[in-house]
Design a protein that fits this description.
The chain has 18 helices and nine strands. The chain is of the alpha+beta class and 481 residues long.
Length: 481
């Protein structure tokens, strides 16, 4: 068809010339330049609203034509093993999975993680930074993980996959909601709000920074109240940093952790170092948005299967890490298997106001410590806790052990020397010893402000020694523990 014929067909569509077959298909009869056909779908154009008429033909002459978007509406649920849910004419895909009581992720099974009958663990409130008081809102613990169209945030970023998990009886249940079209976002969010209303605690991994602000943005975009504003929120990323960040070392492998040498706190790294599970053929995070955009363009949901499995593993690992942490808090210091875990457990206890349990954890970490860094941190934490409780002699003993610890980091040694200088000056009134500790802290201090404070302390002690005669302390200042 030349240009004149095309223009005449636009002005007089009733007299349009028939399409040129050479333009509809390339030589050889291939129709690759046309939109795809789906001839094996049931129904016809007159009965099924998904069917349309192929350009250049009719429903009677050609197989029923389905656009890429319509193909997704027909096949996504079947490919992903889910079902369609519809509300007010808008549809999305929901995929349900149940993990039975014997399902394992590394060394941990679902049976090891089951909460109490009310759906929460007895000391879960400690992970929330509270005391042993129960969680204020009764109800099950809801685990949430999102897969999004990007990491930039803002109104243009959407959560195309919302994964929700909870313990249901003797199993762990996962529900995943897929946004197949942006017009269905509101009805999808309504189901999320319904599940949130029946939950007592929200658990995420880095959710305070990313997941919850993003989902609240989408709710506000649709002028809906955010569902998690009144629900206690536990971000397990921060608890993992307290409990297990140094655990993926040779020390952790000797005590049965089986992790690799890494200090990252990614969920997959915690899954490997704490639970002992290594993922195989897991989709990389940076590939997730491109797989969804491929699905939106082509209707091919097969690349999303790996994304769904990745999301399910994230939810299961998150639930098991939460249960492991809650079980440690319930069993106490003796349950910690490494020095770093005992140290982190003590910090969680101290945040919750359980100082006696915290000091017991610090003492265990100092006894187990094969790393001078962990041992030094544990002794410093023990000393600070004892000083706050008025147990000054016990605190001084911990600081003396730090000074005798070979290879202890300089900043920990400096803090111990400063604390001992204060202890000997103001409590023991031993100015000779106090001056030696102050000079030692001055040699280790790098900060200008701290150096000036150390100089001021040395000068004050010199003035005191010039006005009083104090017998020198015959005991050595630096002795081994």
């Amino acid at each position: 068809m030349n240009l004149g014929d095309r223009l005449r067909s636009v002005v007089r569509p009733g007299r349009s010339a028939p399409p040129d077959p050479s333009e509809l298909a390339p030589p050889g009869g291939s129709a690759s330049r046309n939109p795809p056909y789906v001839p094996d779908l049931p129904g016809s154009a007159s009965r099924n609203p998904l069917y349309g008429t192929h350009p250049g033909g009719s429903a009677a002459q050609d197989p029923p034509y389905v656009s890429p978007e319509q193909v997704s509406h027909s096949c996504a649920a079947e490919v992903l093993g889910g079902e369609w849910r519809e509300s007010r004419g808008h549809r999305y895909v929901a995929v349900e999975r149940r993990y039975p009581v014997g399902h394992r992720l590394g060394r941990v099974s679902v049976a090891d993680c089951l909460p109490a009958e009310d759906g929460a663990w007895p000391r879960l409130s400690l992970l929330l930074g509270r005391s042993t008081a129960p969680v204020p809102n009764p109800g099950r613990t809801l685990f949430v993980d999102l897969e999004t169209t990007g990491l930039a945030g803002g109104a243009g970023t959407r959560a195309f996959l919302v994964g929700l998990g909870w313990f249901d009886g003797a199993s762990f249940r996962v529900r995943q909601l897929l946004l197949t079209g942006y017009v269905a976002e509101r009805v999808l969010l309504e189901e999320v709000a319904d599940l949130a209303a029946r939950s007592g605690t929200l658990v995420t991994y880095n959710g305070k920074t990313f997941d919850v602000p993003l989902i609240e943005t989408r709710f506000l975009f649709h002028r809906m109240p955010p569902p998690f504003s009144d629900v206690p929120h536990l971000d397990m990323l921060h608890q993992a940093r307290r409990l297990w960040r140094p655990s993926a070392t040779s020390e952790s492998r000797e005590h049965g952790y089986g992790g690799t040498q890494t200090t990252t706190c990614r969920l997959s790294a915690m899954e490997e170092s704490v639970l002992g599970h290594v993922r195989e053929n897991d989709v990389a995070g940076f590939e997730v948005p491109s797989r969804y955009f491929h699905y939106v363009r082509t209707g091919d949901a097969r690349p999303l299967e790996a994304v769904f499995e990745h999301n399910r593993l994230d939810l299961l690992a998150l639930a098991m890490l939460t249960a492991t942490a809650a079980t440690l808090l319930e069993e106490g210091p003796a349950a910690s298997r490494t020095a770093s875990e005992a140290l982190g457990l003590g910090r969680v206890y101290e945040r919750g106001g359980l100082t006696e349990e915290a000091r017991a954890c610090y003492a265990r970490a100092a006894a187990l410590g094969e790393s001078c860094v962990v041992q030094g941190e544990a002794l410093r934490a023990y000393g600070v806790s004892c000083r706050r409780a008025g147990q000054f002699d016990a605190a001084a003993e911990a600081w003396q052990r730090i000074l005798a610890l070979p290879g202890c980091p300089a900043h920990i040694t400096k803090d111990a020397a400063e604390a001992l200088a204060v202890h000997h000056e103001h409590r023991l009134r031993n100015f000779h010893a106090a001056r030696e500790f102050a000079v030692h802290s001055l040699e280790l201090t790098v900060s200008t402000t701290r150096r000036e404070a150390a100089r001021h302390r040395v000068a004050r002690l010199d003035r005191k020694l010039g006005t009083r005669v104090v017998e020198p302390d015959p005991a050595p200042l630096f002795h081994s523990a």
